[in-house]
Amino acid sequence: MNIALKLLLVTTSLILASPASAEVLSIAKPEAVDVSTDRLSRIRMTLQKEVDADRMPGAVVMIARRGQLIYSEAIGFQDKAAGKPMNKDAIFRIYSMTKPLASVAAMMLVEEGKMQLTDPVSKFFPQFAKMEVLVPDKDGKAIREPAKRQITIQDLFRHTAGLAYGEFSNVPELKAAYAEAKLFDPTITAESRMITPEQFVTGIAKAPLVHEPGTTWEYSMAVDVLGRVVEVISGQRLSAFLDERLFRPLNMTDTGFKVPEAQQARIAEPLAKNPLTGAANDIMLNVKLEPLNDSGGGGAVSTAADYLRFCQMMLNGGALDGRRYLSPTSVKLMASDHLGSRPGSPLTPGALLMGVEGYTFGLGFMVRQGPGLAGVPGSEGEYMWAGAGGTFFWIDPKEQLAVVYMAQTPGAIRPYYRRMIKALVAQALEN
């Protein structure tokens, strides 16, 4: 039996086992950890204005400082069209906030000696041994040439593999190749979930690269490939590995790759219309269906409470509630600069996520390079990522701060809300 079929048969990706929401963290008054309650109240007031103006349906915001929960609010509507108020246990499509989860899973295997960051991907999938790169000929036409070096596991973590996203790429040849391989549907973000793992690997290995491996940062399907590596090493579906090694131990009871029928009333929905264009909003993932493969790059769902526990574990250096998931050295490595002087194409990490500079990329996370330069407040070494549906989180070791912002606001308005919540949290810190 081939590995793809084994992965499909090993387990279901229905890993949302319990209707009960996870306990978050111990609760403290904001002033006990040098945060102003009065200034925190600006979060609700500001987001409520956005809800009232019909620019967003609603949001859940949770903030932990020094290991204690100091802010937990549900604002607006879970489903505005249905008149359903937002609840703190609402389930959100987290899209690319799946990437940090899959990256932690992969780092666990690095720690166990089952792979190394310097390993070529072809060690696990021979199809990647002879990749081709698109380069312009003398007439400016894109042609394929053999890649000068192989893609490594580190390239997958940090998005320097030469891969891209069909949805975001401006390269016609790449978009056509990805569409032919069913790696994306032009109308739906992350719908590569609906092909098998084997079809995914074969399709992306046949498609050309847009950069020489290791040379350029371009946000891509690299973590989906990394998820396939986790599967082939572990012999489990990614959902099963994450459930066993991360979700269940962390009590992330509502995190998975499908929402079970009993919990589907908790799914948060976007507005019907894009507030910037007035056109119909983007079609979001149907998370009520069982995916054929678990997208490590964008297929998961979660709640604010669940994801905050993951963030606190990372902030603690890889441990929570007496259990260790990663070593402190691995967490530091993941939150370090892994790009150096490599350019971003077409955007740098910070420009893509928030429309600001001042950020590099580590192993699964965007990382702040210094206290200045970026057009948002923050600390050197803070790390974060976000999702196409509007979700966002960051972890600030210097401030001992973990923040999760959950909303379903797809489209170009996302960077605006990320900058907004960064500023609103920062202004409430008193020391």
Which properties best describe this structure?
alpha+beta, Beta-lactamase, eight-stranded antiparallel beta sheet, two-stranded antiparallel ribbon, globular, disordered N terminus
3D architecture notes:
The protein is α+β, with helices and mostly antiparallel strands and 431 residues long. It has 2 domains: 3-91 and 237-426, DD-peptidase/beta-lactamase superfamily (Beta-lactamase, 3-Layer(aba) Sandwich); 104-234, DD-peptidase/beta-lactamase superfamily (Beta-lactamase, 3-Layer(aba) Sandwich). It has helices at 3-10, 37-52, 98-111, 153-158, 172-180, 197-206, 222-234, 238-247, 304-315, 328-334, 349-354, 414-426, and strands at residues 58-65, 68-79, 84-85, 92-95, 132-136, 142-146, 300-302, 319-320, 323-324, 359-361, 366-368, 383-386, 392-396, 401-407.
